[in-house]
Amino acid sequence: MNSGFESIAGSKRSLHVQVAREIARKILSGQLPQNSIIPSELELCEQFGVSRTALREAVKLLTSKGLLKSRPKVGTKVVERAYWNFLDSQLIEWMDGISDNDEFCSQFLGLRNAIEPEACALAARNATVEQRMKLSEIFEQMCDIANADVFDQVKWTSVDTQFHSLIFNSTGNVFYLPFGNILTTMFANFIHHSSTDGSTCIEEHRQIYSAIMAGNSDKARLASSTHLQAVKSKLPI
């Protein structure tokens, strides 16, 4: 097992973010096990080729995401997985290529099943005029892409992400907002994974859209559940 790091000196990215990413990926992949003590500050500075300031900022960032915890006279320790902040969009980005894609999408779908139908119901009830206008604009784009002679995966992923993210942001409930934010990260991977055959579930989206625009929360909830069941059938799990 290689838990060492390569120098990132000269990287164009913000140094502390780059350092944090590399350490995070070692943790997420298990190369730095839970409850283990990471290399000392001096060792890491030498391996990465960065200053102590950059390293300390990286550790602070990883601590805020629940991955690390520093203790006097003990060192910096990898926190147990149960405390990692998997709803952090940056952490999700760093997981790319590490976790089993099928399993990760399956777990994400489980989360969606638990909260998204209710988010649609709330959006039907609470979306503002401006949010409904924006949803109409987005849905029109979805129809254009779905009806095009050649399916554009990149455009579909972008507009489908916007559609679902806007729904969470239209609930009128602040506790749903973080989900709308992480969707912009996770959905790009999830939608691509579930629509690689060119299928867009446009009719299921139409039912969700129509129910929200009509202010019918019960139909919006049901339409969302139906859509998620359709999505589940397309995942290779």
Report on this model:
The chain has 237 residues and is mostly helical. The protein folds into two domains: 15-89, Orthogonal Bundle (Arc Repressor Mutant, subunit A); 100-234, GntR ligand-binding domain-like (Four Helix Bundle (Hemerythrin (Met), subunit A), Up-down Bundle), CATH 1.20.120. 65% of the residues lie in helices and 3% in strands. It contains ten helices and two strands; from the N terminus they run αααββααααααα. It has a two-stranded antiparallel sheet. A hairpin with a 3-residue loop joins strand 1 (68-71) and strand 2. Helix 6 packs antiparallel against helix 9 (202-214). The longest helix has 26 residues, at 101-126. The chain starts with 14 loop residues before the first helix and ends with a helix. The relative contact order is 0.11. The model has no long low-confidence stretch (mean pLDDT 87). Keywords: DNA-binding, Transcription, Transcription regulation.
The CATH topology assignment of the largest domain is: Four Helix Bundle (Hemerythrin (Met), subunit A)
CATH class of the largest domain: Mainly Alpha
Structural class label = mainly alpha
Q: Please give the order of strands in the largest beta sheet.
A: 1-2
Give me the CATH superfamily of the largest domain: GntR ligand-binding domain-like
Instruction: Tell me the span between the first and last alpha carbons.
Output: 30 Å
- Helicity level: 55-70%
Q: Could you list the spans in which at least 5 consecutive residues all have pLDDT below 50? A: none
Structure annotation, total helices: 10
Mean pLDDT: 87
Largest sheet: 2 strands, antiparallel
**CATH architecture title of the largest domain:** Up-down Bundle
Per DSSP, what share of the residues sits in E-state strands of 2 or more residues? Answer: under 5%
**Based on CA inertia axes, which overall geometry fits?**
elongated
Number of domains: 2
Give the SSE order as H and E letters: HHHEEHHHHHHH
Care to count the β-strands?
2
Determine Rg (CA atoms, Å). 21 Å
Protein name: FadR family transcriptional regulator
GO molecular function: DNA binding; DNA-binding transcription factor activity
Domain HTH gntR-type: 13-81
Pfam families: FCD, GntR
